[in-house]
Automatic annotation (TrEMBL):
It comes from the Eukaryota. The keyword Transmembrane applies. One of its GO terms (molecular function) is acyltransferase activity, transferring groups other than amino-acyl groups. PANTHER family: ACETYLTRANSFERASE (PTHR23028), ACYLTRANSFERASE 3 DOMAIN-CONTAINING PROTEIN (PTHR23028:SF128). Residues 7-354 form the Acyltransferase domain. Pfam families: Acyl_transf_3 (PF01757). This is Acyltransferase 3 domain-containing protein. Keywords: Membrane, Transmembrane, Transmembrane helix. Signal peptide: none annotated. The keyword Transmembrane applies.
Length: 451
């Protein structure tokens, strides 16, 4: 795998990706954890309590992805704007906006192609008969003809970015929002490159209030807008404080911010009225948002944003997130996000339900019933193997698929800009003596990570 500089934001991205996978596993096998208790009069399970329930905190992890998107896509233009290098800022925004689309869309199209292939070789057949509602909902039929199969592939590839839904992988519904969020960053930076940092802080505040009051339907304002703008705000703070940020606040405060953020991130997805603490949070947020707002998205945002703020001001948290383990998790975070649902519907399902599939249960009338999962120990072993396969596949993706996508995007953008190819072709086995050019070496722009 190609080396990559360790940094705390990469580690945070890796944690978010891991949490999304963990949350989907819990949704598949223990969906009742989304409630703070079975009912208002029942003692909650350990993993229904605050902090412990972050095992099903995938929604806050998605909010964290948007925060990171706002941060990494704005930090370069902000730095150039603050240094007065406006020409470089405009140039960087233009190049990033064009390349960003390819770096996000092309890998996603390949992942959709993979899950389409799996469906059409009937690899998801078992998912139609399992007792897990979440896995069963991911089933897709094997198309009867090659023509209909290709038609369904084209529709899935297009609708991922037009209507926000992929019939072959429902977890890709956020990706068009990530692309829109990136464009929101570039538009905001384009409009504010020439303004003073203090004025840009004011603009962030206005945009934040605008997205807070949107609150419609699934609260796209809270899911996308608030997180993107707050991520840009953190990037601005990064350039404002530079290397002194970890020493700005007294040591306990960043730690307390992280703890508070983790608590807020635990707001339950379902039935918040079943526990006093979550019911209080629901009532509070209802009073602060528009009618019929999805208050869960607001708590997801506030929790993830508070965690990010605490980490930003914490030297120890940054050091931990920059460690080799978290650096690896960050490098493979995007392919993990793209591949986990495909592997859950195939590899994990095969392992968990194979014993039942070998002897399918039937009712008194002889009709086949849902396949039953194995014992708890069996499931834990299957999940451990699944994680190994997932992260091994993601590492291979980073090693082989990502470079192909990068070359394709670089070639397409180079052609669009009218640039000559930088690659030098030489005859095989010909010895070439080193030459030292008198012309200045062109600096290659580093593109942001896709997620």
């Amino acid at each position: 795998m190609a080396p990559r500089d360790a940094n705390w934001i990469d580690g945070l991205r890796g944690i978010a990706s891991f949490t999304v996978v963990c949350a989907h596993l819990c949704t598949a096998f223990v969906p009742w954890l989304h409630q703070p208790a079975q009912d208002p009069h029942t003692t909650p399970h350990l993993f229904q309590l605050p902090f412990f329930r972050l095992a099903v905190g995938g929604r806050s992890a998605v909010a964290l992805f948007f925060l990171i998107t706002g941060y990494v896509n704005s930090i370069g233009p902000i730095g150039r704007s603050r240094s007065g290098n406006t020409d470089a800022a405009f140039n960087g925004i233009a190049r990033s906006a064009l390349a960003r689309s390819g770096r996000l869309i092309l890998p996603t199209m390949i992942a959709t192609l993979l899950t389409w292939f799996m469906a059409n070789i009937n690899a998801y057949h078992m998912t139609m008969h399992v007792d897990s509602t979440w896995i069963r909902q991911g089933w897709h039929r094997q198309e009867p003809t090659l023509g209909s199969a290709f038609n369904s592939l084209v529709r899935a590839e297009v609708e991922t970015w037009t209507v926000g839904w992929d019939d072959y992988d429902g977890t890709q519904w956020t990706l068009h929002l990530f692309l829109e969020g990136s464009m929101l960053v570039y538009m905001t930076m384009l409009a504010t490159v020439l303004v003073k940092p203090k004025a840009r802080f004011f603009i962030y505040a206005v945009l934040y209030l605008y997205f807070w009051q949107m609150g419609e339907g699934q609260a796209i304002g809270a899911l996308k807008g608030l997180n993107i703008i707050f991520g840009m705000f953190i990037a601005e703070l990064n350039h404002h404080y530079r290397d002194t940020a970890p020493s700005v606040l007294p040591a306990p405060i960043p730690f307390l911010l992280i703890i508070l953020g983790l608590f807020l991130s635990g707001f339950p997805q379902d039935a918040p009225s079943n526990a006093h603490w979550s019911d209080t949070m629901a009532r509070l947020m209802t009073s602060l948002t528009r009618e019929n707002s999805d208050i869960r998205r607001y708590w997801d945002h506030l929790g993830a944003a508070t965690v990010l703020l605490g980490i930003f001001f914490s030297r120890n948290a940054r050091r931990v997130l920059s460690s080799p383990v978290f650096n690896f998790l960050g490098r493979v975070s995007f392919p993990v996000y793209l591949l986990h649902n495909t592997l859950m519907k195939s590899v994990l399902t095969w392992m968990v339900y194979l014993p039942s599939a070998m002897n399918p249960p039937r009712n008194a009338q002889g009709q086949q019933m849902d396949l039953q999962r194995g014992t708890t120990t069996h499931i834990f072993v299957a999940v451990a193997v699944f994680y190994y396969v997932l992260y091994r596949a993601a590492a291979l993706w980073v090693g082989y698929i990502d470079p192909l996508c990068a070359r394709a995007v670089d070639g397409a953008t180079g052609w669009a800009y009218g640039e000559a190819s930088l690659r030098e072709y030489r005859p095989i086995l010909q010895r070439v003596e080193p030459k030292y050019s008198q012309s200045p070496v062109r600096e290659k722009t580093r593109l942001d990570s896709p997620v």
